[in-house]
Amino acid sequence: MKGLVWVSALLLTAVFTYYQIVTDSAQPIKTELNTGVQRFPIVFARTHSSSADCPVVLQISDITVKGALLYKKYPTKDTLIKVDFKREGDKLVAFLPSQPRAGKLEYKIDLKKEGSPVKVGINTPVVIQFKGDVPNFISVLHFLLVFAGMLLCIVTGIYALFGFRSFKFFTVLTFIVLVVGGLIFGPIVQKYAFNEWWAGMPFGWDQTDNKTLIAILFWLMAIEMLRKKSSAFWVIVASIVTIVIFAIPNSLFGNQLDQATSKIIQGTILPLLQLF
Question: Are residues 42 and 79 in the same domain?
């Protein structure tokens, strides 16, 4: 029975992890260019290292296709800056200038074939965010800890539901892994990427930080209730809450550089209040 629990939990964790990856706002947008004669795949990057300019590379072998890259700082009402694409073999290449950590640019492409406009798969501008470089070993450890935390969350919830005696031990273990992954390695990653240790409550509104905090608080409450009543109910609740939290896509309210003050304002709640 326990073997089946672990296999099921592993599969569910893999599904949630894949979902988080494909729904993350940092994932590139894939579309295509239609010249009327040929179709070419186009990829728009949505994140890049702040240590270098971001290349915009269009794999278009048709040498009659020419055009420009248009961009401006986001969110601003600045005039779009135009940079002509240069042909390098079967590619058109232009560059977006590097921005400070958490800085964003809004960009689009304007292409023509023999003077006539060429249709691109998306019409709206793409927003790209620049981040600091996070050491690979820290990124890997953070990912593994988050994966392990989710796996233990599911296993512990099932153990508590079916009354397995070891669910108390796994409750404490789940809490420890979530704390190490979310409150130790999470801020380290955040510091490297955006030069901020914590952008969640009570200091801000960063969604990833807040999700981590809520999950950990529920597991802390579950441990406290176990100490008082030895009840599995709050362990099951903590497990369900964590699963629901993990189902929310990341980066809906991420860090963002205020272009006027050069200070990071996201995740503060200020940009949300400005919507009303």
Answer: yes
| Domain end position, chosen among 111, 131, 151 | 131
Distances (CA, A) of 202 to 88, 209, 221: 50, 10, 19
Same domain? 151 vs 213: yes
Q: What is the pLDDT of residue 275?
A: 35
* Per-residue pLDDT at 260: 60
In a domain, residue 30? The reply is: no
Structural domains in the chain (count): 2
All residue ranges of the chain with pLDDT < 50 are: 252, 267-276
CA–CA distances in Å: residue 33 to residues 38, 110, 119: 8, 11, 6
pLDDT in tens, 112-126: 988 888 888 787 899
Torsion of CA 20, 13, 212, 104, to 10 degrees: -20
Angle between helix axes 2-23 and 136-161 (nearest 10 degrees) is 130
Give the C-alpha distances (Å, rounded to integers) separating 232 from 92, 162, 214, 238: 60, 9, 19, 10
Which structural domain, as residue segments, surrounds residue 234?
2-24+134-273
Residue 102 pLDDT? 86
Tell me, what's the pLDDT at 268? 44
What's the rounded Cα separation, in Å, for the pair 264 and 115? 42
- d(CA 69, CA 81) in angstroms, rounded, equals 8
Strands (E), the chain: 29-34, 39-44, 47-49, 54-58, 65-74, 81-84, 86-88, 91-96, 104-113, 116-117, 119-120, 126-131, 256-258, 263-266
pLDDT at residue 262, as a whole number: 54
